[in-house]
């Protein structure tokens, strides 16, 4: 129909260069390390909060157990 040339981009022109360079690998390793540290810090925070909760509930139980005991006092009265 028409003889108009359509410019094509050479997709494989940059295929000789590696996509995962050394600096990219360093950044990726740092990102994974930071993500792992963030996850461990979150788990440590949850563990610490559970430990504090157990301590507080245990302390309340030990201090409040006396309220559940019955005490009787027998006094003789002479008229």
What can you tell me about this protein's structure?
This protein is mostly helical and 79 residues long. It has a domain at 21-66. The protein is built from one helix and no strands. It has one helix at residues 22-64. The longest helix has 43 residues, at 22-64. The chain is rod-shaped. The relative contact order is 0.04. The mean pLDDT is 87.
Q: What are the defining features of this structure?
A:
mainly alpha; about 55% helix; rod-shaped; 1 helix; about 80 residues
Secondary structure layout plus pairing:
Layout: H1 22-64
Helicity level, as a percent range? 40-55%
Measured on Cα atoms, how large is the radius of gyration? 37 Å
Mean pLDDT: 87
**Ranges with pLDDT <50 over ≥5 residues?**
none
Helix-strand topology string: H
Strand content: under 5%
Number of helices: 1
The count of strands amounts to 0
> What gap, in angstroms, lies between the N and C termini?
133 Å
Summing up helix and strand content along with how strands pair, one would put the structural category as: mainly alpha
Main beta-sheet annotation: none
Shape assignment: rod-shaped
Outline of the structure:
The protein has 79 residues and is mostly helical. Helix content is 54%, strand content 0%.
């Amino acid at each position: 129909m028409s003889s108009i040339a359509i410019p094509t981009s050479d997709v494989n022109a940059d295929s000789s260069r590696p996509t995962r360079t050394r600096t990219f690998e360093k950044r990726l390793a740092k990102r994974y390390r930071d993500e792992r540290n963030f996850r461990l810090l979150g788990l440590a925070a949850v563990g610490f909060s559970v430990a504090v909760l157990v301590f507080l509930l245990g302390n309340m139980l030990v201090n409040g157990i006396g309220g559940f005991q019955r005490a009787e006092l027998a006094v003789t009265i002479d008229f």
